[in-house]
Each structure stands twice: as C-alpha cells, then as structure tokens.
Design goal:
single chain; 111 residues; mainly alpha; elongated
Length: 111
C-alpha cells in the first residue's frame, strides 16, 4: 500500500478533487491487493492439501488420513479420486484468483 500510494495516478486522483477515502479505497487499495491475491490463491490450495500431513500426525480422522491409508494399502481408485479432488481445489483457487484480477484491475480483460 505504501508503494502504491506514491504512484502518479494517485496524485492525479487527488488533483481531480476526489475525497481521500475514495482515492484510498478505489484507486490505491484495489491496486495494492493484486500481489496479495496472487499469493492467497496458491496458499489456499496448499492449506487444503496440507491437511493430509496434519491429519496423519495428530490422528484426526479425515480425508487426508484416508488418503495416506490408501497409499499404504495401494488402493488406487481412492488415490486417484483424492488426487483429482485436490486438483479441482487447485483449479478453483486459480480460477478465483483470475476472476479477482479482472475485478481489481479494470485493465485486465478476459475475452
């Protein structure tokens, strides 16, 4: 936010007479959120897939523990289904990130 607030377009928005909250929210915050959204998407997918390790370590019953049990017992259909489900989580997270890019920055258009 500190880097974005010093840009020329922020100075131009202030020179046009826009109020400070309008400049901060509409111009500065939206452009400052682009790197944050870039990190949050894959981080969310990592959070979902990291449950396998946590469930195994703390003996919590769940999909992650079931996946590890399936790998140890060579239950291939369960392994493929779980990997497919985690891949869908990753695809959805990346799709949400792309949609957020278009919402945050009007210069980004998907045709």
């Amino acid at each position: 936010m500190l880097q974005v607030i010093r840009e020329d377009y922020i100075r131009t928005a202030r020179a046009k007479g826009l109020s400070e909250p309008r400049v901060t929210v509409h111009h500065a915050l939206r452009n400052a959120l682009i790197p944050v959204v870039t990190v949050i998407g894959p981080l969310f997918a990592a959070l979902m897939t990291g449950s396998m390790i946590v469930e195994q370590i703390f003996a919590i019953p769940g999909m992650g523990k079931f996946f590890v049990w399936s790998v140890l017992n060579r239950n291939y259909p369960v392994i493929m289904g779980t990997v497919l489900l985690y891949a869908v989580f990753l695809i959805i997270a990346n799709l949400v990130v792309d949609i957020m890019y278009a919402w945050l920055d009007p210069r980004i258009r998907y045709t």
